[in-house]
Amino acid sequence: MTNKTFALGGDLPINRLGFGAMRLPTATFNGPLRDPETGIAVLRRALELGVNHIDTAGFYGRDEVRSNDLIRKALAPYADDLVIATKVGPIFGSNGVPSGQGGPKDLRGLVEGNLKDLGLERLDLVYLRTGGMTGPGGESIAERFAVLAELRREGLIRHLGVSNIDVEQLAEARAIAPVVAVQNHADETSVQAICEAAGIAYVPFFALGGGNNPLDTDRLGKVAARLDATVAQVATAFLLAQSPVTLAIPGTGSIAHLEENVAAGDLELSDEDLADLRA
Question: Where are the alpha helices (DSSP H) in 180-230?
């Protein structure tokens, strides 16, 4: 893969293939808890493999097993080049799933909770995650994003991002403070186009077959066989080939799967490969 790095916000160089921490505590929100020691080992191995961008959230985890706690236990004191991104907005409902949405008055506490759990004095990147468990749009985010902008001015946050937003909400946020990253569903192409034009990192979720976004295994499988790679590796390489502002954050609770994911960053797609994948 060419252009393996991206300057987040213009001042934080990161590898475009990072690591998503959501699956460290459980495979799904309702799934059984995973062994914390395995999660710690996965995180340490990720850094050994060159990962320097970890995407997390305070609402990743359940009971005593939380992604932020695992990150702190595994990696603190943190390497100078490690960038940790987190998300605030969702709050846990009575069912133990982050199905609620915090208001402006909740955001400072959520940011301070992330700082405490991660053992940091300043967060590199904080996304405002909007919309609860629904899709983007339909509401103003100005009041909530303004709270995060104030926390940035206070020095608790270095850079701001938005997640699960539409074109109008992105414009609303950018009118308040600089937006350096957008984390959206993989099929939000109109938002992605704005990010590419503005040099904003675009970090798609459910890009590798999660949620309701199944992979086209026929097209991917043809190229995977040609390159002696897995379908998931080709999907990751193809994702990164879409735009120089696109970042990938595949997550896993397995070292073997982690190593497979990271190896996708070295996969070179030819013009023939790209043509087959876009057919």
Answer: 189-198, 217-227
Domain count, the chain: 1
Domain range enclosing 63: 5-214+243-266
For the annotated catalytic residues, the residue numbers are 60
- Enumerate the β-bridge partners of residue 87: 127
Q: What is the pLDDT along the chain (279 residues), one digit of tens a residue?
A: 568 999 999 999 999 999 999 999 998 877 899 999 999 999 999 999 999 999 999 999 988 999 999 999 999 999 999 999 999 999 887 777 787 889 999 999 999 999 999 999 999 999 999 986 677 878 999 999 999 999 999 999 999 999 999 999 999 999 999 999 999 987 778 999 999 999 999 999 866 544 445 566 788 999 999 999 999 999 999 999 989 999 999 999 999 999 999 999 999 999 999 998 887
The model carries a pTM of 0.94
Q: Is residue 222 part of a domain?
A: no
Q: How far is Cα 73 from Cα 77, in angstroms, rounded to an integer?
A: 9
**Closest to 165 in 3D by CA, of 118, 214, 197, 132:** 132
